[in-house]
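Homework help board

Subject: predicted structure for assignment chain

Our instructor gave us this sequence and asked us to write out the predicted structure in token form, then describe one feature. I got the tokens but I'm not sure how to describe them. Can anyone check?
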Amino acid sequence: MSALPACPQCSSTFVYEDGSLLVCPECAHEWSSVDVVDEAEELQVVKDAVGNVLQDGDAVTVVKDLKIKGSSTVVKVGTKVRSIRLVDGDHNIDCKIDGIGPMQLKSEFVKKA
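My token output:
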């Protein structure tokens, strides 16, 4: 069962979907479910290995040796990565590492510098 949000007008939890709209049967308020999806995407927060919130442009430090697939090189512990960019997906950090090049990292293997 999907968890629908409470009515923004009367806070009723008896909300149902009618096509692309959400409807409150108690106050008859109707609103778009697309707004709810957009708010949920905005609330998605990316945290590092220690729980600090990451944002675009932050500098991070690698906390574990990371082998690069298809290569014999390794990103060593303590490597500082500047100007990260947050993206959707499993590897949610897009960056460029000096000496290695562009790559994607998982936020669980970095900490905010």
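Reply (TA_rk): Your tokens look well-formed. For the description, you could write something like this. The two ends are 41 Å apart (CA to CA). That's the kind of observation they're looking for.
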